[in-house]
């Protein structure tokens, strides 16, 4: 028995052989992707196809027998697809900066490391970059599971012609970061208002009486703290790497299951993937029973709604606009019919986009 057990050198030699095969296969895949790219440029098709990417992930996660974990498989494939896409055509993606914020993490999660990621100062600046064709995509936050909607993003869709082409769900973790990495050195805490609110209990329990200062972003907090040994920032792990900080405590958020949802916007809509969501924006006529009538087209066709949000319509006092997310693609016959029926009781209706559901 004993003499059949392979040595570590033998096992490593086997790993080297397998790695050679993986590299050869990655290159074979890249050559096929380049052919796809040539076909696309000949027929003016989009290089980036989020629906196809979703199908790839879904299929691979289903066929994976393990023990290689599905989460890791997804990360590996994100980079394979990101690199493949950059072989076909380099891609520029604008996001709500600065670097190391959760928007940055979400953008990396969606587009991988091969895309050119550009941090911008505000949500309108991200929209403008895409509208002016300086970036192919823009990434902006739209809601947080504990803090609610980011109304600024919703309001942008009233006047913008951009389409939503993907949603990103990011699980948010907050870390306490400082230069020394020691809790007893912390005499002041900096962060953005939202993370501060999300870590309130932890701060009271672990740093009672320590002043907490809100600043423009978690990245600004990390930057301040990188020059002050007596301060700490609540920010992401990525901020620790970018600003050379140590993790004092990780995952200090009060609520587990804290997610932020981001939207990817672009100038063009997105093809059907088979598992999609559609977002619409509309304002209804002021009539009795209108709230019932606006939901009826979906209820009677069994179309699931995942969100409905109302906002004051800034152009007219006391009028409201609604944002609605439903399951399905606007080209699905049932969805198209329901939207046409909804249109009849609306002053205006705008389809903001159909896009693959995040996984
Ligand atoms: O199938 C395509 O259309 C491709 O361009 C290939 C590929 C891939 O790497 O599999 C790359 C980018 C697209 O967004 C989707 C898939």
Structure description:
This protein has helices at residues 8-42, 50-63, 70-88, 102-111, 123-131, 151-159, 193-198, 200-206, 218-225, 237-242, 290-299, 333-344; strands at residues 92-96, 116-120, 137-144, 148-149, 163-171, 175-178, 188-191, 212-214, 231-235, 246-249, 259-266, 276-284, 305-312, 320-327, 346-356. It has 359 residues and is α/β, with parallel strands linked by helices. The two termini are 46 Å apart. The strands form three sheets. Strands 1, 2, 3, 4, 5 and 11 form a six-stranded mixed sheet that branches. α2 runs antiparallel to α3 (70-88) and α11 (290-299) packs antiparallel against α12 (333-344). The model has no long low-confidence stretch (mean pLDDT 93). β1 (92-96), α4 (102-111) and β2 form a beta-alpha-beta unit. The longest helix is centred in the first third of the chain and has 35 residues, at 8-42. It has four domains: 2-87, Up-down Bundle (Chorismate Mutase Domain, subunit A); 91-172 and 259-266, Periplasmic binding protein-like II (D-Maltodextrin-Binding Protein, domain 2, 3-Layer(aba) Sandwich); 176-249, 3-Layer(aba) Sandwich (D-Maltodextrin-Binding Protein, domain 2); 276-356, 2-Layer Sandwich (Alpha-Beta Plaits), CATH 3.30.70. It is globular and about 80 Å long. The protein has twelve helices and 15 strands. 40% of the residues lie in helices and 26% in strands. The site of prephenic acid has 11 residues, from α1, α2 and α3. The record marks 260 as: Essential for prephenate dehydratase activity. Residues 92-267 form the Prephenate dehydratase domain.
């Amino acid at each position: 028995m004993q003499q059949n057990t392979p040595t570590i050198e033998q096992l490593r030699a086997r790993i080297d052989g397998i790695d050679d095969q993986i590299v050869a296969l990655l290159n074979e895949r890249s050559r096929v992707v380049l052919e796809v790219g040539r076909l696309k440029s000949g027929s003016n098709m989009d290089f980036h196809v989020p629906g196809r990417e979703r199908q790839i992930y879904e299929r691979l996660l289903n066929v994976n027998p393990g023990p290689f974990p599905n989460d890791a498989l997804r990360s590996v494939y994100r980079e394979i697809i990101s690199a493949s896409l950059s072989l076909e055509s380099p891609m520029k993606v604008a996001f709500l900066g600065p670097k190391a914020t959760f928007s940055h993490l979400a953008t990396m999660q969606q587009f991988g490391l091969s895309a050119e990621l550009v941090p911008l100062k505000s949500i309108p600046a991200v929209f403008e970059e895409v509208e002016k064709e300086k970036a192919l995509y823009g990434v902006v936050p739209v809601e947080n599971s504990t803090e609610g909607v980011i109304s600024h993003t919703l309001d942008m869709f009233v006047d913008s012609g951009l389409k939503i082409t993907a949603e990103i769900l990011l699980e948010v973790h907050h870390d306490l970061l400082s230069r020394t990495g020691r809790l007893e050195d912390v005499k002041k805490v900096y962060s953005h208002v939202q993370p501060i609110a999300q870590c309130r209990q932890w701060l009271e329990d672990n740093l009672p009486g320590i002043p907490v200062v809100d600043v423009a972003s978690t990245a600004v907090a990390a930057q301040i703290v990188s020059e002050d040994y007596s301060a700490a920032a609540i920010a992401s792990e990525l901020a620790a790497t970018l600003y050379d900080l140590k993790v004092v405590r990780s995952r200090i958020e009060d609520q587990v299951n804290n997610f932020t949802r981001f939207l990817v916007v672009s100038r063009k809509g997105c093809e059907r993937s088979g598992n999609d969501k559609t977002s619409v924006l509309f304002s209804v006529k002021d009539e009795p029973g209108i709230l019932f009538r606006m939901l009826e087209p979906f209820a009677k066709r069994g179309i699931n709604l995942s969100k409905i949000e109302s906002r004051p319509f800034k152009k007219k006092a006391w009028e409201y606009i609604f944002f609605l997310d439903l399951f399905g693609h606007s080209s699905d016959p049932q969805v198209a019919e329901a939207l046409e029926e909804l249109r009849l009781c609306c002053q205006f209706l705008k389809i903001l986009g159909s896009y693959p559901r995040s996984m």
